[in-house]
Amino acid sequence: MTTIGLFDSGFGGLTVAREVRRQMPCANIEYYGDNGRAPYGSRTRDEIVRMTRQCVDFLASKDLDLLIIACNTATVAAFDQLTGKYPFPVIGVIEAGVNAAIATTKNNKVGVIATQFTIQSEAHKKAIQEANPEIDVIGKACPSFCPLIEAGLADSPEMDRDAREYLSVYKDSGIDTLVLACTHYPLIADTIRRHIPDGVAVVDPAVETVKQAIGVLKERGVVVQTCEPAAPGRETSSRREELERESERRDGSCECAPTYHFYTSGDPVHFEKLGSRFFGAPTGKVQQVKFE
User: Fold this and answer.
1) What digits encode the pLDDT tens for the residues 182-237?
2) Which residues contact 261 (CB under 8 A, 6 or more apart)?
3) Cys-Cys link to 39, which of 64, 146, 171, 190 (CB 3.0-4.6 A)?
4) CA-to-CA distance for 141 and 54, rounded, in angstroms?
5) Is 182 designated active site?
6) Among residues 26, 55, 142, 182, which one is catalytic?
């Protein structure tokens, strides 16, 4: 049975883990969230690389077939130092977001919201404009989003206030596409949509990242049982419930019995409570694993 490892600075990578569960219903999942040291976005590159290596080294002991760096900040800072270092392939989330943005925009005006580190790196802007120099990219750092989500305040007045402030840059920008270039941000997609112009397409790289993972595994001869994901669209509360019911139906008809293991450097009780909500299924007991 295929085993997929996922690493993120906290809860955000669960948006990718949820897609793994939906598109690869028979895959085992090994997930590490470095909640105890989150957020990564305000840290130095050296700090991010060191912490990412610690977490990935831990997951490497879990007999993985593939690992997803389900964190844009860690992908920007550490991806080059991780590829080719393990007996399994490692992929990030930057490429998927870039490709989706290029395919989605109709007027060549794209917004990118992310952590401070990711925006300062201009990773998405450089990659998008390398593929199509005609695309104008407007990046905006949203430094409070991750800490608020990690604290369980995704639906709070504070989150709404900060979203209004950060996203005001797009009011008269003319963008037709907005990339959620942090895996935490799909968890507040409805709040984000309230504060951007009507008609702007919101790109969540999670779907394309998992498609890429499936392709990489097949190239390596790994047998992957897949499911065609539901058509992308606005993921309201009712849509999330619909996706969860769809996943439950697959689970009930699937003869395999995948295992899901979750680890965190933070509070395992807090992770289990919020993580189950974001993952769309019970995480079960979460194990605390800390590094120096």
Assistant:
1) 999 999 999 999 999 999 999 999 999 999 999 999 999 998 887 755 554 444 34
2) 28, 29, 30, 31, 62, 287
3) 146
4) 26
5) yes
6) 182
The string of DSSP letters for 7-74 reads EESSSTTHHHHHHHHHH-TT-EEEEEE-GGG---TTS-HHHHHHHHHHHHHHHGGG--SEEEE--HHH
What is the pTM for the complete model shown? Answer: 0.87
Tell me how many domains the chain contains.
2
Instruction: Answer yes or no: is pLDDT of 239 > 60.
Output: no
- Among the listed residues 26, 55, 71, 146, the single catalytic one is 71
If asked whether residues 225 and 166 sit together in one domain, one would say no
Q: Is 26 a catalytic residue?
A: no
Q: Which domain holds residue 221?
A: 3-93+206-288
Beta bridge partners of 30: 5, 261
Residue 41's Cβ-count burial label (10 Å; 0-12, 13-18, 19+) is buried
